[in-house]
Design brief:
Layout: H1 4-12, E1 35-36, H2 49-52, H3 62-76, E2 87-90, H4 92-104, E3 110-114, H5 121-129, E4 132-136, H6 148-163, E5 167-173, H7 185-198, E6 201-205, E7 240-245, E8 258-262, H8 265-272, E9 280-284, H9 291-297, H10 299-312, E10 315-316, E11 318-319, E12 330-334, H11 339-355
Parallel strand pairs: 1-10, 3-4, 3-5, 5-6, 6-7
Antiparallel strand pairs: 2-8, 7-8, 9-12, 11-12
Helix pairs in contact: 1-8, 4-5, 9-10
The structure holds pyridoxal-5'-phosphate.
Length: 360
């Protein structure tokens, strides 16, 4: 379903530490909770820490994702419920384009799109991933009518038979940039069935969804691809992905917020591993490694055990293994946290260090 490269991202699970049950962060009033030295974030005191830190993951706080799920539910009329678990944020739709290309194509695979279309897709998709953009020419046919499928099909077959290119996704822009039109429901159904036939993903950039004016009875207005129930038309929901963001409808292009909405958890998992972000010290806790574990299972297993023991005393830090360190037992400590949190965390580490073999 994903490309080989996408599967590698999904396996890497770089955001796994943020998924599942989150431990309560340290509270300076009652001195309870986990002191996290694990993320390179600069805490600005006085502001809501969950919204402005990595606490709930580098893919948007739960609150933000829930708010977006509500917006999508109210305005896109999704056929199946959309929750915060179906949404992840990056810095604008532009970054999402790269994420889609990286996860859905391998180098030289193709992404199909009609002519004309938003010109920056070329750079956004092909530069980071080395995929190829395959343009379908409509030769006078209406690109928004079901007959456009014939042109898309010709382009897929030509790419495959004449150039050996495997098309992995169809990219549409709805409402369309630059044509300024919305896709009618029946065309979206035909596009979905076309994607199902060739087992390719449909990426629908709906960044202008709410910038629709002068609706009249002759058109449906904006119809999101999410509002079509794929099961009713024999289409796999895992092939459908929507891109949305703040740049157009919220006139906030400088905010750099874009989101991916998908029912495909494997794709979301892969996409999480493509995102990244100095306030650190690299510290040596190798004296606290369990020598029996080192002898039985090796140094890296002992480092993982040490990491768990630190978590038990309420300190979370990234360990050396994650940074390809040469020897086990090193940790990255972030010092750009509030002073009380820093003091509490350091005192927990020092006590732990002295009681587990370290010398002062
Ligand atoms: C169709 C389309 N998608 C994406 C973008 C860029 O979106 P963002 O600012 O979220 O990167 C634009 C900007 O013009 C656009 O026209």
């Amino acid at each position: 379903m994903l490309s080989n490269r996408g599967e590698t991202y999904a396996e890497a699970g770089l955001a796994n530490a943020y998924l599942g049950h989150l431990k309560t962060p340290f509270d300076k009033e009652n001195k309870e909770g986990v002191v996290s030295f694990s993320n390179a974030e600069n805490i600005a005191s006085g502001l809501d820490r969950t919204s402005l830190t990595y606490h709930e993951g580098p893919f948007g706080s739960r609150r933000l994702r829930e708010a977006m799920a509500e917006l999508i539910t109210s305005y896109f009329y999704p056929a199946s419920p959309i929750t915060s678990d179906n949404i992840l944020f990056t810095s604008g739709v532009t970054s999402l384009n790269a994420v889609c290309a990286l996860c859905l194509t391998d180098p030289k695979d193709g992404i199909l799109l009609g002519q004309p279309i938003y010109g920056s897709f070329n750079g956004d998709f092909s530069v980071p991933s080395s995929c190829q953009l395959i343009y379908a020419s409509f030769q006078g046919d209406d690109p928004f009518g079901p007959s456009a499928m014939i042109r898309y099909e010709e382009a897929v077959l030509k790419a495959r038979d004449e150039n050996g290119v495997s098309v992995r996704a169809l990219l549409i822009c709805n409402p369309h940039n630059p044509l300024g039109r919305c896709y009618p429901r029946e065309t979206l159904v035909a596009l979905l069935q076309f994607c199902q036939k060739y087992q390719i993903h449909l990426i629908s950039d709906e960044v202008y969804a709410l910038s629709v004016y002068e609706e009249d009875n002759s058109t449906d207005g904006f119809v999101s691809v999410l509002s079509i129930e794929p099961a009713n038309i024999g289409v796999n929901p895992a092939l459908i992905h929507v891109l949305y963001g703040m740049s157009k409808d919220f006139a906030a292009a400088g905010l750099r917020l874009g989101c991916l909405i998908s029912q495909n958890q494997r794709f979301l998992q892969a996409a999480l591993s493509t995102s990244i972000a100095g306030f650190f010290l690299w510290i040596d806790l190798s004296k606290c490694l369990d020598p029996t574990l080192i002898a039985d299972q090796g140094g890296w297993a002992a480092e993982s055990d040490l990491s768990n023991r630190l978590l038990q005393i309420g300190v979370k830090m990234a360990s050396g293994y994650a940074y390809h360190n040469e020897v086990p037992g090193w940790f990255r400590i972030i010092f750009s946290v509030e002073m009380e949190t820093l003091k509490e965390g350091l005192s927990r580490i020092v006590k732990f260090y002295l009681s587990s073999g370290g010398s002062s």
